[in-house]
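Severity: low
Component: inverse-folding endpoint
Summary: output formatting inconsistent between runs
Steps to reproduce: submit the following structure tokens with default settings.
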């Protein structure tokens, strides 16, 4: 409450032609505090200092919340938090902010006993803007409404109050209400102006339609989209923007929408069209949002022209169709060419056997019947002919095997890879009993596929591991798999600690007749890994390898995994 002026104190006289505004401010009867944007106290009126039991010289330049902290004995104190939030709104919005009545206790000076005194305030915070529009100061004005709150809390009846006190209470309540009402209305006007600006400048075409289907507002983008001035659209039914054949459906949808208004997107998966003022139709997507205007339900309609998108989608569809047709044609051509090539390779390989057998047979007969008569280089030449015949026979066998792996129907049965690997390693051990090779096969390795072809895969991979560990002091071969399947496939591994290879040449691994080691180091045809790759690919899997020269190689390949229904087979 404002105190009456003390008549015993002399009045300060200020020259009219040169007023001291600081003295005027500090002498003002209201409770004012001036804050800088970093919330430090820049000025304080005498009335504010008296009401808060502070001294001007002790609080100027200090943070407001350092000077006026919450009462530590009040666990429910919210004064600091609420005031800080209000001041931040003023800084952010650069507009005044009216606060509800706050309980914000003030500190009692130590010479008067210390502690905190209970106080209730009605605060009002307003910005002082600089020339560039930024906040230069915040004026924090309060009314001390402690007595009013206490009287209300005590439930004192109106007729027991003194006439003077009753008038003061009513005046304070009216003033607080009026200030709050004025600020609330200003905030509402600002919000409405901001909403109108957003509506008018939106890049989306937007219209406002009332519950009777009449257009009541149109933004600039909508006028451009429908090629009609806004003033000619306002007041007309929404049907003028919809092709006539869709009028009945639109009226049904509009009626249903106003019964159950909610934000809704339309046009996804539907054939929606709108019509411009010149009669041109265009495909569109529409979003609806209910809004109350003047207490009545309206709907904001946003319209997006998707003509270019539809055109692009149709072009993409045609391109995809053409691409699919070309791919199918090319695939059929390649399949036919591969079949012809495989048939040719099979036929050639098969037909070469007859002259090869004759050449090998006559060479052998010549060696047996006339070998003792042959001298010098003649015997060497004959040995080379027989050696070349055997190698050509092996190459033909490789070509036939490579051809067979891509011919015929593919089996899809559960295959026990562990059992196959154990058997292959046991056979290799019997063939070369002098070699001491450690090997480890993980039990329970199953895949689904053609058992005959999968055995070819394991024989080639394990055979290579056996061959390339020949020069290793403690050769080791491992066959294992990843614990979990990758979708419908499971990845298997064949690893060794043998000669390995340079990864720079890994691209040649699976090419027919390509070898990464010299024949005299490790004999072979270079057809095995090409066969393995074709078999794995026929099963829909993949194969690759990693290696370090002198430290071995690991081949990893994927095959279809067995399902739960195959558990009993295991």
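Observed output (run 2 of 3):
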């Amino acid at each position: 409450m404002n105190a009456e002026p003390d008549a015993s104190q002399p009045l300060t006289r200020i020259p009219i032609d040169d007023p001291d505004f600081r003295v005027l401010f500090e002498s003002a009867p209201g409770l004012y505090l001036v804050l800088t944007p970093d919330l430090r106290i820049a000025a304080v009126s005498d009335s504010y200092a008296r009401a808060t039991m502070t001294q001007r010289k002790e609080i100027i330049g200090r943070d407001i919340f350092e000077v006026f902290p919450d009462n530590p004995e009040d666990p429910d104190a919210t004064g600091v938090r609420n005031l800080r939030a209000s001041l931040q709104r003023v800084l952010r919005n650069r507009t005044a902010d009216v606060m509800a009545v706050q309980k914000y206790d003030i500190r009692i000076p130590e010479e008067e006993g210390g502690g905190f005194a209970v106080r209730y305030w009605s605060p009002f915070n307003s910005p002082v803007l600089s020339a560039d529009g930024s906040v230069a100061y915040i004026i924090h004005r309060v009314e001390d409404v402690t007595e009013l709150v206490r009287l209300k809390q005590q439930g004192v009846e109106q007729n027991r109050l003194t006439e003077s006190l009753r008038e003061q209470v009513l005046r304070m309540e009216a003033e607080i209400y009026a200030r709050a009402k004025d600020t609330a209305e200003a905030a509402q006007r600002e919000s409405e102006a901001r909403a109108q600006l957003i509506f008018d400048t939106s890049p989306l075409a937007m219209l406002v339609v009332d519950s009777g289907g009449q257009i009541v507002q149109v933004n600039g983008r909508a006028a451009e989209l429908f090629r009609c001035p806004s003033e000619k659209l306002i007041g007309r039914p929404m049907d003028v923007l919809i092709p006539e054949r869709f009028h009945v459906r639109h009226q049904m949808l509009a009626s249903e929408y106003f019964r159950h208004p909610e934000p809704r997107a339309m046009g996804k998966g539907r054939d929606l069209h709108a019509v411009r003022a010149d009669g041109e139709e265009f495909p569109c997507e529409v979003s609806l949002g209910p809004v109350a205007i003047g207490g009545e339900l309206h709907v904001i309609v946003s319209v997006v022209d998707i003509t270019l998108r539809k055109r692009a989608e149709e072009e993409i569809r045609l391109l995809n169709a053409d691409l699919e047709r070309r791919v199918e044609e090319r695939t059929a051509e390649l399949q036919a060419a591969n079949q012809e090539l495989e048939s040719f390779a099979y036929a050639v390989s098969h037909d070469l056997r007859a002259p090869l057998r004759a050449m090998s047979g006559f060479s052998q007969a010549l060696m047996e019947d006339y070998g003792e008569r042959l001298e010098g280089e003649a015997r060497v030449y004959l040995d080379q002919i027989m050696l070349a015949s055997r190698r050509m026979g092996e190459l033909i066998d490789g070509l036939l095997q490579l051809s067979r792996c891509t011919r015929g129907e593919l089996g899809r049965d559960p295959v026990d890879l562990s059992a196959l690997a154990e058997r292959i390693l046991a056979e290799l051990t019997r063939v070369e009993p002098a070699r001491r090779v450690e090997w480890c096969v993980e039990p329970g390795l199953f895949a689904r596929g053609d058992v005959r072809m999968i055995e070819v895969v394991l024989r080639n991979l394990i055979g290579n591991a056996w061959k390339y560990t020949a020069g290793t002091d403690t050769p080791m071969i491992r066959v294992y798999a990843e614990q979990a399947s990758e979708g419908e496939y499971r990845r298997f591994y064949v690893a060794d600690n043998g000669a390995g290879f340079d990864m720079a040449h890994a691209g040649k691994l699976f090419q027919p007749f390509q070898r990464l080691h010299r024949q005299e180091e490790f004999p072979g045809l270079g057809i095995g890994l090409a066969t393995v790759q074709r078999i794995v690919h026929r099963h829909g899997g993949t194969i690759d390898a990693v290696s370090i020269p002198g430290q071995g190689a690991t081949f990893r390949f994927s095959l279809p995994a067995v399902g739960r229904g195959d558990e009993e087979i295991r």
